[in-house]
Amino acid sequence: MYETKYHRASTVSDAAAMLKNADDGKLLSGGQTLIPTMKQRLAAPSDLIDLRHIDEISGITKQADGSIRIGAATCHADVAGNADVRAALPGLADLAGHIGDPHVRHMGTLGGSIANNDPAADYPAALLALGATIETNKREFTAKDFFTGMFETALDEDEIVTAVVFPAASHTAYVKFPNPASRYAMAGVFVAKTGSGARVAVTGAGQNGVFRMPDMEKALDGNWSADAVASMAPAVDDMLSDMHGTAAYRANLVTVMAKRAVAAAA
């Protein structure tokens, strides 16, 4: 690991000022991606700004309209175990409870995951399927505008994710086929039945990161059952292909995971 300066921020404005004054600063939340990358000397930030001790971006609140607001510095284990999340959005709680291993779930954070936007991360599928709103220290994003490509988001370099607001949904479920070594999704599908209709989002399989399946959504609006999506699959040309699975294999996984998710949500 290269030499770096460590800063512990106590407020969001504190963190923003530290980031602005750094030559090449990086925000540290759970550190589950950044720290291993630094250990391998693939990243060498001049400064690390630790967000984990900022109370204003931690915690989970059920709001008056039934939505769930989760602070960006909230760890996966807290999302998985929260009673309000489990009651209102069981698919989201289940998703968080199957990220990595216990160490990752107690260190990794919601904000860190979505800001990194790993193409195989789990949370982006939940945000896109539920139509979540991402709050930062500058503005708000809808999920469809936030995720812009593999490891890419619409965040400015000096922008800090502070919270995510998840609207209520009557049915939710997330099912993934995990890589047995990393536990990242080779294909993960989040389904939700919302007031505006069915929504289906896929992670881990697409060349450009998380994406929705409009054909599946239309089918589920007419018939909420696993059979409704059994014959549907994303275009093979749009799928990732690597040593773990071909594009055709991943396209088939999307169909299988979608069927299982719809059955679980029902």
Notable traits:
5-stranded antiparallel β-sheet; 11 helices; 4-stranded antiparallel β-sheet; about 35% helix; CO_DH_flav_C; globular; Uridine Diphospho-n-acetylenolpyruvylglucosamine Reductase, domain 3; Uridine Diphospho-n-acetylenolpyruvylglucosamine Reductase, domain 2; about 25% strand; alpha+beta; about 270 residues
What distance lies between the first and last C-alpha atoms, to the nearest angstrom?
48 Å
* Proportion of helical residues: 25-40%
Secondary-structure-based class equals: alpha+beta
Mean pLDDT: 95
Rg from C-alpha positions?
18 Å
Tally of domains: 2
CATH topology of the largest domain: Uridine Diphospho-n-acetylenolpyruvylglucosamine Reductase, domain 3
Count of individual helical segments: 11
Query: The biggest beta sheet, please?
Result: 5 strands, antiparallel
| Unreliable residue runs | none
Strand segment count: 14
CATH class of the largest domain: Alpha Beta
**Percent in strands:** 15-25%
- CATH architecture title of the largest domain: 2-Layer Sandwich
Helices and strands, in order, run as EHEHEEEHHHHHHEEHEEEEEEEHH
